[in-house]
Every structure is written in C-alpha cells, then in structure tokens.
Design goal:
Length: about 300
C-alpha cells in the first residue's frame, strides 16, 4: 500500500539535503527498486532503504510509493527527479569545463572493463608502461560484465566488447579477437563428441561464444561457470574444451587449438570508449593512448598453431 504523504510543518524550512542522497535517489528512480540500486552501488538494500527513509524525513514528503515489485515515484517524486537531473547535468557541465582546463598529466582515471581483460591485458601490459610514462596518473579498475554508464560518470574510460549506439561518446575499435575451440594438449586427439565442454553463463549478459558453442557443438556442457576467468582456468586444468579467443593460446603452452571441423567462430571486437568532452583531457588521453598501444599484443597473438591430427 502506498504511504500517505507527510505534510511539511508550517514555518519550518527543510534541512539541508546531502548531494549523495540526491544521487542515490536518482539511482533508485532509474533502477526502479531499492535492491537494484543497491546492487549498482555495491551496498546493502537495507542501507538504501534507510537512507531514502531519512531523505524523505528531511524533505518531509514522500517521494516513493513502496510496492511489492519495487518502488514507484510519487507525483512529487517525479518533479523532484526532474530537478535533480537538472542539477546533475549542471554539475556534469561544471566538471567537464574544469577538466578542459587541465594541463598536467595527473589525477585519477576510472577504467571500466571485464576482469579477464584486466588480468590478462591491462595489469601486466598497460599499467607498467603507464606508471613509467605518467607516474602522477592513478587508476581505479572497475571490473564487471555490466556496461558502466559513462554519461553519468560511473567511469571515464571503458573497454567494451561492443560499440556504443547512443550518447555523446568517442569510440575506437582496437582489437579483433577470433575465437576457436581450445583444450588442454592431453585432449588434442579427441573428437567433438568425446570431449567434455565448459560453458559460461553470465546471467543477463549475452555471450556470443556460448551461443556458438550451443549451436555447433550441440552437447550439454559438463561444467558451467559464471566468468571467463573461471572458464579459462577450467580448460587449463584439463576439465574440458571451450570456444575461446585464440589469443589465450599465448597464456599457456599446454593449450591447443582443436581442429573439429566446426564453422569459424565469432570474432570479438574490443572497443575503447570515453565521453567526447573528456577525450583530450591530459590524464584521459594518456590512459587511452597506453591502452590503444599496449593491447595491440592481442592482435599479434598466434594466428595459427600446429593442430593435432
């Protein structure tokens, strides 16, 4: 049942509102529930609920209707959302203008990427070069399969496996990754049907390699994991085969590309993305250039390998 709206006592102005509570209010409004906003923030749902209750007491109005399936904004909540979004846009313009006045290559850059790209590419290849060239630049690696919202400044740069279709963003394709069936060397002579297969289930995130595996292998996986890191480690441990980027062959001499007579696997594309207004900010440009340069090793991964017969 919707809560009745509490009238503001006459003659008493509302207390100051915390900007972080306004941002949390927006996240709940956009996500549609306290639980979804909590997952996005990485905090407990009870924390979101408690802070929003305090927020409403501070304003002395109800901005949410608590429903069994989530939270709906009251009419006053809808008005407040529009005002807060205007404040957010103004703050964003201020940050952009301030960033445009940066001259030195220094400061924090938040980089959104998958854990596998972080572990196998950015940490060993990009960060040492960046530390040597620009010691006053620091990074925060945000690893997730969910796409960070660059428009709302969840990160300054993203490494993505898809090209953005909306937003005032700059994008550059830096790597193309062909995928192939891969297994431990000890399974090299097994046929498609004799092999056990390792699947990956990323929840709401589509995995084109998994779709290919289902359509062409046509055998239920022996093991299903929820991350590419775990899938690769299962293959390296000899637990089965999987359709993986050919570049993983450079990670372990015990891995081989299997010749199973399957159609060519999907080609994964790796994209760098940043808001257009930040592209030439010195610290952003420095990280972008290091990523674009150092991740080229993935393009140079072994294109062919002696296939067992």
């Amino acid at each position: 049942m919707a809560r009745p709206r509490a009238p503001a006592p006459a003659g008493r102005p509302p207390a100051d509102v915390d900007w972080d509570d306004l941002r949390l209010f927006l996240e709940v409004a956009r996500a549609g529930s306290f639980s979804a906003a909590a997952r996005k923030r990485g905090i407990e749902q009870s924390t979101v609920s408690r802070r929003m209750a305090t927020f409403e007491r501070t304003l002395r109005v109800a901005v949410f209707d608590r429903l069994p399936g989530g939270s709906m904004l009251t009419p006053l909540g809808e008005q407040l959302r529009r005002h807060v979004e205007s404040m957010e846009a103004g703050a964003d313009r201020l940050v952009r203008e301030a960033n445009g006045h940066e001259r030195e290559v220094e400061g924090l850059v938040r980089l959104a990427l998958t854990e596998s790209i972080a572990v196998h590419g950015v940490i060993p290849r990009v960060l040492p070069v960046l530390a040597e060239r620009h010691p006053r630049v620091s990074l925060h690696l945000l690893t997730s399969y969910e796409a960070a919202d660059l428009g709302h400044r969840e990160a300054e740069i993203a490494v993505r496996f898809f090209r953005p279709r909306s937003g005032d963003l700059v994008a550059a394709r830096i790597v193309a990754l062909p995928t192939v069936p891969v297994a431990h060397r000890k399974h090299a002579k097994r046929s498609r049907d004799e092999l056990d297969w390792i699947g990956v289930d990323l929840g709401r995130i589509p995995a084109v390699e998994e779709d290919y595996q289902k359509r062409h292998v046509r055998k239920a996986p022996k093991l299903v994991v929820s991350s590419y890191i775990a899938q690769l480690e299962a293959v390296r441990a000899g637990l089965g085969a999987a359709v993986l980027p050919r570049s993983v062959l450079d990670l372990d001499d015990g891995l081989v590309e299997l010749d199973l007579g399957l159609p060519a696997g999907p080609v994964l594309e790796l994209w760098l993305v940043t808001p257009r207004s930040l592209r030439h900010v010195p610290r952003i440009a420095a990280v972008w250039d290091a990523l674009e340069e150092q991740l080229q090793f993935l393009n140079g991964a072994r294109r062919a390998r002696a296939r067992p017969r």
